[in-house]
Amino acid sequence: MLITAGLFVFGVFTQRDTKFRLKEQANKKQLTQLAAIAERERIARDLHDVVGHSLSSIALKSELAEKYLAAGNHDKAGLEINEVASLSREVLSDIRQAVSGLKKNLAEGINKLIKELAKHNFKMEYENSISAINAGVESAIVLIFTEAVTNILRHSKGNNVVIKLFQSELFINISIADNGQVENYQQGNGLHGMTERCKELNGTIDINSESGFSLTIKLPKGI
Known about the structure:
223 residues; alpha+beta; elongated
C-alpha cells in the first residue's frame, strides 16, 4: 500500500510537472509568434513611411524633368534626372535600414526633410529645443515627420510649413503644419501609421484641418 501510495503521489506530481512544462512551451511559442507579428508590422510601417516618401519625391522630380524636356530646357531636366537617380540609391539604403531596424538621427532626418520641402518651393519655419532623448523615440519622430512631409508634397496646396519641437515638464511636444486649404481628408495608411507609432510610445496625436493641415503630438518624457 505504501508503494502504491508513493507511486500515485509521484504520478500526480509528474503529471503536474508535465502540464506546467507544456504550458510554458506554449506560452513561449505564443510570445515568439507575437514578437514576429510585431516585427513584421514595424517593418511594414517603416517601409510605408520611408519608401512611400522617396517614391513620391521620385515621381514629382520625374514629372518636373518631363516638363523641362517639353519646354526644351535640357540642362534643368538633366539635373532633375540626376536627383531621381540619387533618390533611387537612397531608397535602397532606407529599405535596408527599415528591415534591419537601424535607428534614425533626429536632427539629420528633419534637416533632410526641410531641404526637400525647400526644393519644392515651400517656405520653412523650424524650431527645435529638444535635447537628449531615447534613440528609438528619435527614430519614431523622424518617421512620423517623413510621412507628414510625404502628405504635404502629395496633397498640400500651400507654400509654408512650420515645424516645432520642444519639451515641457512632462511631455515632448511636436507639431508640423502647412497653410494649404483642406476641404476633407481620409485617414489612410500614413495617418494610421503615425497614430500607431504615437500609441506605442504612450503618446497622443491631434489632427486639425480648420486652417491648413496640422499634426500636434505629445509624447511622455522619460520613455
